[in-house]
Amino acid sequence: MGDKREDGKVYRPALEEIAMRRFRLRYCTATDTYYMHGNESVCRQLAAVVGVEEGAWSIDGVKRLMDEAQSETFLTSARSGVSVSVSWKIDLSGCGLVFETVRVLAYAGEQNGAQIIFHLSGDNGQRCAIPLGSHENISTDELFGSQTLTLTAYLSEGPSGQRPRLFPCSLDDQAFCPLDIKATLKTQRRGHDVPYVGELLVGLQFEETRDRARSTGRRTSIDVGIKSGALKVHIVQGASLAPLNMISEKSDPYVKCYLLPDAGKTTKCKTSVIKKELDPTYNEQFSFEGTATSDLQQGALEIWVNDWNLALKNTVIGACRLSSGLAVNKGKERGLTSDDETARKASQ
Questions:
Q1: Is residue 325 included in any domain, yes or no?
Q2: What are the residues whose beta carbons fall under 8 Å from the beta carbon of 191, sequence distance 6 or more?
Q3: Residue 73 falls within a domain, yes or no?
Q4: What are the residues facing 182 on neighbouring strands?
Q5: pLDDT tens digits, the chain, 348 residues: what are they?
Q6: Among 130, 160, 187, residue at a domain's last position
Q7: Least CB-packed of 208, 234, 280, 345 within 10 Å?
């Protein structure tokens, strides 16, 4: 234990945390367990990762030690005469959010000459260093706009070989978390050429089955061994949508989506219309059955947020396409062209 390891665990926000724009990660030394949960409860059912090494992004010369005489457990140096470190990483990439503020509550034991220094760093070169006393409550907005957060603890022995004690915890106190990372999150804004028109929270899940039914002309065949299944789309809620009714300063938004390629628009799914609302809650689910894994790699999921209008043509509020390639829609192959971009000012 305590050997050098890098490129380990990366924490990402859950769907609920994305919706609430908050993230929390805690570590309990007594149970040697990491927790990802917004409330104050700590129980085994909420465990995210068990084991300090399993839950760390990198670890070099740090081990968990138990002092049975004092009925205490803590993290400390596994090697003498050198500085050791352990770090944790949080990544928001892919969810459209960035860090706004970060608060780290950390505890350390009496050092007696030993030293512990915390480094917080982001992906834009932001960095701050904080010496850790008996406990520290670190609040910073210096990581504003970053999609990643890396917290690193550097542990150094004292001049007479005194070992540092990081995150000390009584063996009997299994509800105390001497490391508590809290962050508020903010929508990642795009460039000035793409106007901000709101946000849409969408959940995706692919459930794989063994075989796939494939239609070829008038015949239907079963291709054994081709991985396929159901792509499930959960339209959860919108937020801060653009108001298109200048009188009420509201919109009547609904969401529709297509699984491309779809020349005949047979995969179209649509939510209900929510009248006069800029923060609509839909909580509606759709399932695209018989979707092959190759369809996911080569196709696209296109999502539109429209403003419903009884008398006039419905107006596009915003849209996005979840894909890395081209897709077929309305009988022609295309990516997101400049003309499409004008009609679909992308919302996150």
A1: yes
A2: none
A3: yes
A4: 24, 103
A5: 445 555 789 999 887 788 788 899 999 999 999 988 665 655 556 667 889 999 999 999 999 999 888 899 999 999 888 899 999 999 998 777 889 889 999 888 766 788 888 888 888 776 777 766 656 677 777 788 889 999 999 999 888 888 899 999 999 888 899 999 999 998 776 555 566 788 888 888 888 875 545 444 444 444 545 578 888 999 999 988 988 887 888 999 999 998 888 777 788 899 999 999 999 999 999 998 888 877 777 788 889 999 998 777 788 998 888 875 544 444 343 333 333 333 333 333
A6: 187
A7: 208
